[in-house]
Amino acid sequence: MFFLVDWDDYDAALFDLDGVLTPTAEVHMRAWRDLFTDYLTLKGETARPYAEADYFDHIDGKPRYDGVRDFLASRDLTLPEGEPSDPASAETVCGLGNRKNDFFAAALAADGVEPYAGSVTLLDHLEQRGTKIAVVSSSRNAPAVLEAAGLADRFEVVVDGQVASDAGLPGKPAPDTYLEGARRLGVDPEHAVVLEDAVSGVAAGHAGGFGLVVGVDRGVGADKLADAGADVVVTDLAELAGER
C-alpha cells in the first residue's frame, strides 16, 4: 500500500531520526525505563512505577533534559537543574539526563543499529529525484547513530540536540529546529515535508507551517499523531515512495 505523494510539490524532506530512520527509539525507551525504574525505586516512589505510556506521554521526541524534567513533574518530583557537565551520578536534572545517555551509549556500542528498510527505500527514492534532505533530531547522539547505521554520508544538514543547544533553539514541540533545518537547506517550509514518529515532533512540524507533516506510527498511535497535526499517518516510509 502506498500513500501517493506528488514530490514535485516539495523541495525537501526533513526526517526525525530515532523511530523514523532507525529503530533507536526502542533503545531510548529501554534506557529511559532503566533510568526511571531505578530512580523511583531508590526514592521509594513505588506507588506509580514507570510504565511504557510514560515514554510517549512525557519524553518521546523531546530534548533529553526536557524529558527528565517533564517525567519528574508527572510524579510531582523536582530536582535542581544542574549543568550539562554534571556527572551521571549527580542528583540533578542534567545528572539524570546524562545517566540515561550512558545507558543509551552502552546499548548502541553493544548492539549497533540497522536503519529501517522502508526508510532507506524512501531515501533512495528522494536521492534519485534530487530532493533535498535533512535530519532534525532532539538527540545529541544523532551523529553517532547516523554513523552506526551507515547513513551519515546521506545528509549534509543535521540539526541535532547539540546544534540546538549551541544556537539557543528550543526543542520540539517548538518548531525552531525544523525551521532551522529548512533554513540550512535553503527551502521554504511550505515546500518541505516533515517526517516524525513523536507527538512532540509532529506538533513542531505543524507549528512550523510545513507543507506536509507525516506521522510515522511506531507505537504512539495514529489518532494521537493526527491530533497533534499529522496530515497523514503511515507505518512504513516505503509507503511514501510511490508516485502520483
From TrEMBL:
Alphabetical list of InterPro entries matching this protein: B-phosphoglucomutase_hydrolase (IPR010976), Beta-PGM-like (IPR051600), HAD-like_sf (IPR036412), HAD-SF_hydro_IA (IPR006439), HAD_sf (IPR023214), PGP-like_dom2 (IPR023198)
EC numbers, comma separated: 5.4.2.6
Reactions the enzyme catalyzes: beta-D-glucose 1-phosphate = beta-D-glucose 6-phosphate
SUPFAM superfamilies associated with the record: HAD-like (SSF56784)
One GO MF term attached to the UniProt entry: beta-phosphoglucomutase activity
Keyword Isomerase in annotation: yes
Cofactor: Mg(2+)
Keywords of this entry: Carbohydrate metabolism, Hydrolase, Isomerase, Magnesium, Metal-binding, Phosphoprotein
Family per similarity comment: Belongs to the HAD-like hydrolase superfamily. CbbY/CbbZ/Gph/YieH family.
NCBIfam families assigned: HAD-SF-IA-v3, PGMB-YQAB-SF
Protein name (database record): Beta-phosphoglucomutase
